[in-house]
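Example 325.
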Amino acid sequence: MFRSSALLAALLLCAGSATAATPWQSLGEPLTAREISSWDIDVRPDGMGLPPGKGSVEQGQTLYDAQCASCHGVFGESNDYLALTGGIGTLASDTPQRTVASKLDYATTLWEYINRAMPFTHSKVLTVDEVYAVTAYVLNLAEILPMDATLDEKTLPAVVMPNREGFTQAHGFMTVDGKPDVQAKACMQDCTGEVTVSSELPAGFTEEMYGDIRTHFRALAGLTDLPATALAPATNAGTKSPAELAAANGCLTCHGVDTPIVGPAFTAIAERYAGNPEASALLTAKVRAGGSGVWGGAMMPAQASIPDSDLALVLAWLLAGAPAD
Ligand code: HEC
Ligand code: HEC
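Predicted structure in complex with heme C:
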């Protein structure tokens, strides 16, 4: 907890001297190239940080339909989740529609977001080429790129987004002291004596959307101080109940136990396959590959990241009628 910036500055100065065994002892030690590279993951508007690779609109379509359309809609128009297309030219109107197509100033941001965070329930499964392809397809759906376009580390930064010149600081993500949060200035001297770190998000907001984020798998290197469990994929067979495994692997974003969401209720699946000796093998294959048509038009994206052991436990529980304990 920082009490005052003067005190903090004093502590930092002490830490520079090699005598006392303070917790800051290692401050000032140069980082190794490996440590830097594991944190240096951003992609900039000029393309700096983009890995070499390429992908076409056409390749992106196949990926998008399988991995993205279930949530964002076949045309990016949204399927309960955020729309990715539309809204171009509406930002200054009374009814601004903010989508990645209408709001972003650089297409590199779109690439980076998809690369880091999508598909929502199992990010980091796409290869570099696949991220180029699916980015190209989203930009094609938004009518920013033609059907025959291919993106690579050179052509992506050259895409001119419709809102390239439109960024202002008139609004932000949140309002702090009556001002949009983008207007904050870093204080370098005579700053406030008390620094309080706080969050303006309503209590429970992130828990409701993402569960316990400490349990999420993020393929970041360099976090060597974290306990091994924090870096392991979401498998805890033995310590977690099947219901918890279903939640940790993202199944419950689309399936309710008793209620359908995007996909059918688990109890309805149990009913349908009751007495079918092939059910377990059939459903294992289906969940891995994804697909649609058995329950309706909605598509289940391929569930690539759930470990085999978790999937077996979740399906056994599901086929037993998904009992509460
Ligand atoms: C299970 C549902 C789901 C799937 C599948 C999914 N997304 Fe998303 N996507 C989301 C959610 C939820 C958000 C908002 C996340 C947030 O705000 O933290 C989002 C946000 C985004 C955004 C940012 C939108 C914005 O306006 O800032 C992009 C771009 C995106 N997704 C692209 C993709 C692509 C490409 C795929 C396929 C590779 C994909 N998504 C698959 C649910 C999904
Ligand atoms: C993005 C939404 C989404 C996610 C995430 C998702 N599902 Fe599905 N699931 C669906 C949809 C939609 C269907 C219906 C597919 C169909 O009609 O063929 C489905 C169908 C199923 C079925 C029945 C398949 C059949 O052919 O009868 C099972 C079993 C299933 N899901 C299990 C899972 C498990 C386990 C997970 C987590 C690893 C999971 N699902 C994650 C959307 C999803």
